[in-house]
Amino acid sequence: MNARNGDTAPQGARHLPAVAATAALTGALATALGAAALWPDTTPPAPQHPLRQLEIALDAPAVHPGNLDFRATALRCGIAVIVGTHAEHPAKGRLCRIRIDVTVDDAVSAHLDNDDQRLVLADGTRHSMDWEAMQIKRQPLTLDIGAHDSAQYDLWFDIPKNAAVDHLAVTDDKGMPAADIPLPRLDWPDHSA
User: Fold this and answer.
1) Domain housing 185
2) Cys staple from 130: which of 5, 25, 90, 158, with CB 3.0 to 4.6 Å?
């Protein structure tokens, strides 16, 4: 007992609640900082591949026909001729190359036929992929994507020389209605790839 003021608590005991509160706050702060360091980052990942010559990045949101997510990530048009390891291919008009990322958002696999995808021009005409360009550039005409898996590749289209693109109409392997990915309308210089 402290005889001077009649207090029965030991010296310093009055400060224990403040010390405990400070320790609890310090522990909570350390836990929060640790969780922030370990918690997954929710920002979208950077593109897996750098942009190629004269290619522009696309930031259109993903579209979801059926159980597939399609995202167009890059575009290049105005290509007059392409060269592969075994062939050279002049365009009838001008070629456009669209890099897409396809993800199966389901517990089943998908068999995708890229001939179902259409490049739609500003005048409303729809163009299927250019098979010869796809083969020369070794891109998949069809592909299987596993459950909760993804694939990234190019779609090639041959369009009239002075045509402007409007959007890419994509569909899944189940015949769902197409979903549209808007594309920028640009004046592309003639070049080769």
Assistant:
1) 56-192
2) 158
